[in-house]
Design goal:
The chain is α/β, with parallel strands linked by helices. The protein has a single domain, classed as P-loop containing nucleotide triphosphate hydrolases (Rossmann fold), CATH 3.40.50.300. The chain has 8 helices and 7 strands, in the order H-E-H-E-H-E-H-E-E-H-H-E-H-E-H. Strands 3-2-4-1-5-6-7 form a 7-stranded parallel β-sheet, with helices on both faces. Helix 1 runs parallel beside helix 4 and helix 2 packs across helix 8.
């Protein structure tokens, strides 16, 4: 019975996700699902993207958290439309939550909507939320074994951002292992080595992201 219920939930989520794809395709809005562990730098990366792309694209943000609204307040202070999504303990965001939140945005005034998912490397990977792109973040202090331990997250991502790259000298982090483990399960993934503190590597990531957003909104 439990397996049947889980399959029903996943199937229902896929139905809603496809509905979201139809809505955003009509409105020419790209959705980017940003996933990673707590402290990996999801909000910092979104802020860097805002600073780098706000002159080219109209940006909105959905901030997912179990509780609190610290990150949403940070985005709001940048003058970006943002809606806080609190899951009250749930470990991931589902497509229905995005569907319920979309009316809070003027989609005609947006080109791209970033969704900061709940901080963990397991549950968010299992649920599509109508996104056009998945970006996974792995920070150097987390260790170089995470792709091997949590393969689904990295197998389904379009891009892996290795964040806090400026801290490589302080940790035993084998970035070649991370790249090899990722390509073994996801040969098409793009990998970027970034520091949102020093801005190292941000340019290449922003160029890639910009091209992907353009593909959606110009289609």
């Amino acid at each position: 019975m439990e397996i049947k219920v889980v399959k029903q939930i996943l199937a229902w989520n896929e139905d809603v996700s496809e509905k979201l794809h139809r809505i955003t395709a009509e409105k020419k809005v790209a959705i980017v699902n940003v996933m990673g562990s707590p402290g990996a730098g999801k909000t910092s990366l979104i802020k860097a993207v805002i600073n780098g792309l706000r002159d080219s694209f109209r940006i909105g943000v959905i901030e997912g958290d179990i509780a609190g609204q610290i990150d949403a307040e940070a985005i709001d202070s940048m003058g970006i439309p943002v809606v806080q999504l609190q899951t009250d303990g749930a470990c991931h965001i589902e497509a229905m939550s995005i569907e319920n939140i979309l009316p809070g945005f003027d989609l005609d005034a947006l080109d791209v909507l970033f969704v900061e998912n709940i901080g963990n490397l397991v549950c968010p990977a299992e649920f599509n939320i109508g996104e056009d792109l998945r970006v996974a973040i792995l920070s150097v202090p987390e260790g170089d074994d995470k792709v091997a331990k949590y393969p689904l997250m990295f197998a389904t991502t379009d891009a892996l951002v290795i964040n806090k790259y400026d801290m490589m000298q302080y940790f035993e982090f084998d970035d070649e292992r991370v790249c090899s483990d990722t390509y073994d399960i996801n040969p098409k993934a793009r990998i970027f080595k970034v520091s949102t503190r020093t801005h190292e590597g941000e340019g290449a990531f922003l160029e890639w992201l910009s091209s992907k957003i353009e593909e959606k909104i110009r289609a």
